Sequence to fold (511 residues):
Amino acid sequence: MVLSDLGSKISSALQQMGSATVIDDQVVDKMMNTVSLALLQGDVDVKLVKKLKEDVKNTCKVDAMASGVNKRKVIQTALMRGLCGLLDPGKEPFKPKKKKCNVFMFVGLQGSGKTTSCTKLAYYYRKRGWKTALVCADTFRAGAYDQLKQNATKAKVPYYGSYTEPDPVVVAEQGVERFRKDKYEIIIVDTSGRHKQEDALFEEMQMVHKAVNPNEVIFVMDSSMGQAAKLQATAFQAAVTVGSIIITKLDGHAKGGGALSAVAATGSPITFIGTGEHIDQFERFETKAFVDQLLGMGNLQGLKEIIEDKSVMESQEKLVQKITSKGGEFTFRDMYDQFQTLMNLGSFGKVMSMIPGFQNLMGEGREEQSQQRIKRFMTVMDSMTNKELDSDLKIFNAQPERLYRISIGSGVDQRVVWEVLETFKQFKRVADQLKVMGRSGLDFSRMHAGEKERNIQNLAGAMSPQILARMGGMQNFSNLIKQMDNMGGMSMGPTTQKKKKTSKGKARRRP
Fold:
């Protein structure tokens, strides 16, 4: 995300403040000057930046603080609160109700990503068990119905539209009525857009709004508009009651910070942000979680949602049960499955940024390199026999000539095969530690305090020292595990979830 540059600058300012020998008002002033410059470069409105700077400085009168007060913590908290204030209008968005018909009407300018966002929202709710449907009321743009139909088919969401009916009001009314009768819980209506603000657009929106009587009107805004987003949002609010806003294309424009803050200033809450073209590159917007992730402090709630959404917990539960059972051992096939699960998570950079301390781990271009490396390792394992896949290092130690055959079969240098073996050693070290921890797996809620601390230390000891250092050392790693446990996200014991049939990638079996 381009906004990571803004987050890096603000994080750097906080680190410089934290490393100062003496914290006084002058240090706070210097930090806020750096933060203000970063926000202005991110296209945030100068009035909002000025207010933020004044609020933080008025809150943090360091020279007047009593001795013993953690000044660094007070300053950081004040800045975090100020940044959240920039993005939070203080209004709760509409929350759909289960087993009831909830109608969403999408509005926006042409080219803002409205039709794509409709499908993303439908897919988001469908993945969470809602009965969703799409209605294409955009009869103005050529190919609009074809686009929605193609997207809906990919998302496996029912849709309604017409090639012959020119009146969008009739199409919207008929589509909503049909899905209401079939008791769909989420009905999303896509309306026409224009290249500019036209009176005809607003009149049409008002007519469609009157016909379908939506529970929520969602305005879709392109982040590249920057501060101009406020004018657009205000204009649409004057025509129809905009309940919430979706910001798109946040992955590709430096003005995203300006768009986020400008839209928030209109009083309408931002509910989702688009972070890419793919159907799953769509995130619920939570102000504090967004600011935390922006500053490299992670987003554990978002990470938990990704894990649950991708059914990762089930595969991990199966692995823990296997290696903790009598005679159970971690094999190359298990490592292959772990790689497949990791690839299914989506963007490595997105996942890493949700883990505290891993914000810039990938770096520019490194995410693609990491994915290619994993694919190359999986290709190597595709050239292994069933006996090799279901074994560990012993078979290669006893018969090293197998490595040459695998390198020839996979078309890689033998050095890459050795890298696979070294990676397996690291995986097995962690797996062996889980075996010691027993059937409770990573469900620390079943352990008493002493056992929990001991197992966290042992788990950290099995990790790479470089990775542990990246996470802020043993103390931060321990805090991370406890936070995930408190959220219910680390439970991988034998009775944590119901079994579901999921298609998992398997290593190619050789005869």
